[in-house]
Amino acid sequence: GAGVSQSPSNKVTEKGKDVELRCDPISGHTALYWYRQSLGQGLEFLIYFQGNSAPDKSGLPSDRFSAERTGGSVSTLTIQRTQQEDSAVYLCASSLQGVRPFNGYTFGSGTRLTVV
Amino acid sequence: AQSVTQPDIHITVSEGASLELRCNYSYGATPYLFWYVQSPGQGLQLLLKYFSGDTLVQGIKGFEAEFKRSQSSFNLRKPSVHWSDAAEYFCALIGGSGTYKYIFGTGTRLKVLA
Fold this sequence. Notes:
- The complex is a heterodimer of chains A (116) and B (114).
- Chain A is an all-beta fold and 116 residues long.
- Helices cover 0% and strands 49% of the residues of chain A.
- The N and C termini of chain A lie far apart (33 Å).
- The model of chain A has no long low-confidence stretch (mean pLDDT 91).
- In chain B, strand 7 (56-58) and strand 8 (64-68) form a beta hairpin.
- In chain B, strands 2, 5, 6, 10, 11 and 12 form a six-stranded mixed sheet that branches. Chain B has a four-stranded antiparallel sheet with strand order 3-9-8-7, with no helix packed on it.
- Classes of the chains: A mainly beta (116), B mainly beta (114).
Protein backbone atom coordinates (compact mmCIF):
# COMPACT_ATOMS: atom_id res chain seq x y z
CA GLY A 1 0.00 0.00 0.00
CA ALA A 2 0.85 3.65 -0.01
CA GLY A 3 1.76 3.76 3.64
CA VAL A 4 2.35 1.57 6.66
CA SER A 5 -0.95 0.31 7.96
CA GLN A 6 -1.49 -0.81 11.55
CA SER A 7 -4.52 -2.44 13.09
CA PRO A 8 -6.34 -2.05 15.30
CA SER A 9 -5.79 1.65 15.92
CA ASN A 10 -7.03 1.26 19.47
CA LYS A 11 -7.27 -1.80 21.67
CA VAL A 12 -8.56 -2.08 25.20
CA THR A 13 -7.97 -5.41 26.85
CA GLU A 14 -8.29 -6.94 30.27
CA LYS A 15 -5.19 -7.78 32.24
CA GLY A 16 -4.11 -11.33 31.54
CA LYS A 17 -5.57 -11.52 28.05
CA ASP A 18 -3.49 -12.01 24.90
CA VAL A 19 -3.44 -9.39 22.14
CA GLU A 20 -2.23 -9.35 18.56
CA LEU A 21 -1.14 -6.19 16.80
CA ARG A 22 -0.82 -6.15 13.05
CA CYS A 23 1.47 -4.20 10.74
CA ASP A 24 1.25 -4.08 6.95
CA PRO A 25 4.38 -2.35 5.63
CA ILE A 26 4.93 -0.52 2.38
CA SER A 27 5.17 -2.94 -0.49
CA GLY A 28 8.78 -3.74 -1.30
CA HIS A 29 10.18 -2.61 2.03
CA THR A 30 12.39 -5.41 3.27
CA ALA A 31 13.04 -3.99 6.72
CA LEU A 32 10.36 -3.75 9.38
CA TYR A 33 10.62 -2.44 12.93
CA TRP A 34 8.46 -2.35 16.02
CA TYR A 35 8.82 0.42 18.58
CA ARG A 36 6.93 1.15 21.75
CA GLN A 37 6.03 4.63 22.92
CA SER A 38 5.02 4.85 26.55
CA LEU A 39 3.56 7.93 28.23
CA GLY A 40 6.35 10.36 28.97
CA GLN A 41 8.95 8.13 27.37
CA GLY A 42 10.76 8.23 24.09
CA LEU A 43 10.51 5.54 21.51
CA GLU A 44 11.78 2.18 22.64
CA PHE A 45 13.07 -0.30 20.06
CA LEU A 46 11.46 -3.72 20.24
CA ILE A 47 12.44 -5.80 17.22
CA TYR A 48 13.86 -5.58 13.71
CA PHE A 49 12.96 -7.80 10.77
CA GLN A 50 14.93 -8.17 7.57
CA GLY A 51 12.66 -10.16 5.31
CA ASN A 52 11.08 -12.83 7.48
CA SER A 53 14.05 -13.09 9.81
CA ALA A 54 14.48 -11.15 13.03
CA PRO A 55 18.20 -10.58 13.50
CA ASP A 56 17.55 -8.34 16.49
CA LYS A 57 14.94 -9.10 19.11
CA SER A 58 16.89 -7.46 21.86
CA GLY A 59 14.24 -4.88 22.68
CA LEU A 60 11.42 -7.28 23.49
CA PRO A 61 10.76 -6.62 27.20
CA SER A 62 9.95 -10.16 28.25
CA ASP A 63 9.11 -13.59 26.93
CA ARG A 64 5.45 -12.55 26.90
CA PHE A 65 6.28 -10.57 23.77
CA SER A 66 6.80 -12.24 20.41
CA ALA A 67 6.64 -11.20 16.80
CA GLU A 68 6.64 -12.80 13.42
CA ARG A 69 6.68 -11.71 9.83
CA THR A 70 5.39 -13.77 6.93
CA GLY A 71 5.93 -13.49 3.20
CA GLY A 72 8.33 -10.63 3.79
CA SER A 73 5.30 -8.48 4.38
CA VAL A 74 2.78 -8.47 7.23
CA SER A 75 4.05 -8.63 10.78
CA THR A 76 2.21 -9.51 13.96
CA LEU A 77 3.31 -8.50 17.44
CA THR A 78 1.77 -10.71 20.12
CA ILE A 79 1.63 -9.91 23.79
CA GLN A 80 0.59 -12.76 26.04
CA ARG A 81 -0.91 -12.35 29.50
CA THR A 82 -1.00 -8.58 29.19
CA GLN A 83 -0.04 -6.43 32.16
CA GLN A 84 -0.90 -2.83 32.87
CA GLU A 85 2.67 -1.76 32.17
CA ASP A 86 2.18 -2.96 28.59
CA SER A 87 -0.15 -0.02 27.99
CA ALA A 88 1.51 2.09 25.31
CA VAL A 89 1.39 3.05 21.67
CA TYR A 90 3.00 0.39 19.52
CA LEU A 91 4.48 1.80 16.34
CA CYS A 92 5.51 -0.15 13.29
CA ALA A 93 7.85 1.22 10.65
CA SER A 94 9.35 -0.04 7.45
CA SER A 95 12.20 0.94 5.17
CA LEU A 96 13.69 -0.13 1.87
CA GLN A 97 16.93 -1.13 3.47
CA GLY A 98 17.73 -2.18 6.98
CA VAL A 99 21.27 -1.07 7.42
CA ARG A 100 21.51 2.69 7.81
CA PRO A 101 18.14 3.46 6.23
CA PHE A 102 19.16 6.63 4.45
CA ASN A 103 15.66 7.77 3.73
CA GLY A 104 14.49 7.17 7.24
CA TYR A 105 11.66 4.97 8.27
CA THR A 106 8.03 5.27 7.26
CA PHE A 107 5.93 4.91 10.37
CA GLY A 108 2.41 3.69 10.76
CA SER A 109 -0.08 5.55 12.93
CA GLY A 110 0.33 3.08 15.73
CA THR A 111 -1.88 0.91 17.90
CA ARG A 112 -2.82 2.40 21.24
CA LEU A 113 -3.03 -0.47 23.71
CA THR A 114 -4.75 0.02 27.03
CA VAL A 115 -4.68 -2.78 29.59
CA VAL A 116 -7.34 -2.44 32.26
CA ALA B 1 27.34 5.10 24.69
CA GLN B 2 25.06 6.54 22.05
CA SER B 3 22.35 8.89 23.24
CA VAL B 4 20.12 11.74 22.16
CA THR B 5 19.03 14.48 24.53
CA GLN B 6 16.20 16.91 23.96
CA PRO B 7 16.43 19.26 26.93
CA ASP B 8 13.04 20.89 26.46
CA ILE B 9 10.01 18.72 27.22
CA HIS B 10 7.52 21.46 26.37
CA ILE B 11 7.86 24.66 24.35
CA THR B 12 5.18 27.28 23.75
CA VAL B 13 5.48 29.90 21.04
CA SER B 14 3.11 32.38 19.46
CA GLU B 15 2.03 31.90 15.89
CA GLY B 16 4.40 33.75 13.59
CA ALA B 17 7.28 33.63 16.05
CA SER B 18 10.53 31.85 15.33
CA LEU B 19 11.24 28.42 16.76
CA GLU B 20 14.33 26.50 17.80
CA LEU B 21 14.17 23.00 19.24
CA ARG B 22 17.35 21.71 20.79
CA CYS B 23 18.96 18.33 20.24
CA ASN B 24 22.28 17.10 21.59
CA TYR B 25 23.80 13.77 20.83
CA SER B 26 26.53 11.55 22.13
CA TYR B 27 28.37 9.41 19.62
CA GLY B 28 32.01 8.71 18.87
CA ALA B 29 31.91 9.79 15.26
CA THR B 30 29.49 11.65 13.04
CA PRO B 31 26.15 9.90 13.20
CA TYR B 32 23.27 10.08 10.83
CA LEU B 33 20.81 12.54 12.38
CA PHE B 34 17.10 12.95 11.86
CA TRP B 35 14.16 15.01 13.01
CA TYR B 36 10.68 13.50 13.06
CA VAL B 37 7.33 15.10 13.87
CA GLN B 38 4.34 13.34 15.40
CA SER B 39 0.93 14.95 15.24
CA PRO B 40 -1.73 13.73 17.69
CA GLY B 41 -2.90 10.23 16.84
CA GLN B 42 -0.45 9.93 14.00
CA GLY B 43 2.77 8.12 13.33
CA LEU B 44 6.11 9.87 12.95
CA GLN B 45 6.88 11.81 9.80
CA LEU B 46 10.42 12.52 8.68
CA LEU B 47 11.16 16.26 8.59
CA LEU B 48 14.82 16.20 7.57
CA LYS B 49 18.06 14.28 7.84
CA TYR B 50 21.79 14.91 7.94
CA PHE B 51 24.47 12.53 6.76
CA SER B 52 27.42 14.65 5.67
CA GLY B 53 28.34 17.74 3.71
CA ASP B 54 26.55 21.02 4.17
CA THR B 55 25.81 21.40 7.85
CA LEU B 56 22.58 23.32 7.25
CA VAL B 57 19.89 21.03 5.95
CA GLN B 58 16.46 21.94 4.68
CA GLY B 59 13.41 19.85 5.30
CA ILE B 60 9.72 19.80 4.67
CA LYS B 61 7.18 22.30 6.02
CA GLY B 62 9.75 25.09 6.11
CA PHE B 63 11.98 23.48 8.75
CA GLU B 64 15.75 23.49 8.75
CA ALA B 65 18.41 22.11 11.07
CA GLU B 66 22.05 22.87 11.63
CA PHE B 67 24.65 20.27 12.53
CA LYS B 68 27.37 21.59 14.83
CA ARG B 69 30.06 19.02 15.46
CA SER B 70 31.83 21.10 18.10
CA GLN B 71 28.65 21.28 20.16
CA SER B 72 27.34 17.79 19.30
CA SER B 73 24.09 19.48 18.41
CA PHE B 74 21.48 19.26 15.69
CA ASN B 75 18.93 21.96 16.45
CA LEU B 76 15.72 22.32 14.50
CA ARG B 77 14.55 25.78 13.44
CA LYS B 78 11.66 27.46 11.72
CA PRO B 79 11.51 31.22 11.02
CA SER B 80 7.75 31.59 11.47
CA VAL B 81 5.60 29.02 13.23
CA HIS B 82 2.09 28.13 12.07
CA TRP B 83 -0.67 26.81 14.31
CA SER B 84 -0.51 23.51 12.41
CA ASP B 85 3.06 22.99 13.64
CA ALA B 86 1.76 22.09 17.10
CA ALA B 87 2.98 18.52 17.57
CA GLU B 88 5.70 16.48 19.21
CA TYR B 89 9.16 16.57 17.70
CA PHE B 90 11.74 13.82 17.99
CA CYS B 91 15.45 13.96 17.26
CA ALA B 92 17.12 10.67 16.42
CA LEU B 93 20.44 9.22 15.38
CA ILE B 94 21.77 6.15 13.67
CA GLY B 95 25.42 5.42 14.06
CA GLY B 96 27.96 2.76 13.32
CA SER B 97 28.42 0.47 10.38
CA GLY B 98 25.71 -2.09 10.00
CA THR B 99 23.41 -0.06 12.20
CA TYR B 100 19.69 0.02 11.63
CA LYS B 101 18.42 0.97 15.08
CA TYR B 102 17.40 4.52 15.82
CA ILE B 103 18.24 6.13 19.12
CA PHE B 104 15.44 8.60 19.80
CA GLY B 105 15.30 11.54 22.14
CA THR B 106 12.37 11.78 24.50
CA GLY B 107 10.69 14.43 22.38
CA THR B 108 9.68 18.07 22.66
CA ARG B 109 6.00 18.96 22.65
CA LEU B 110 5.31 22.22 20.84
CA LYS B 111 2.29 24.34 21.64
CA VAL B 112 1.40 27.25 19.36
CA LEU B 113 -0.61 30.18 20.66
CA ALA B 114 -2.93 31.98 18.28
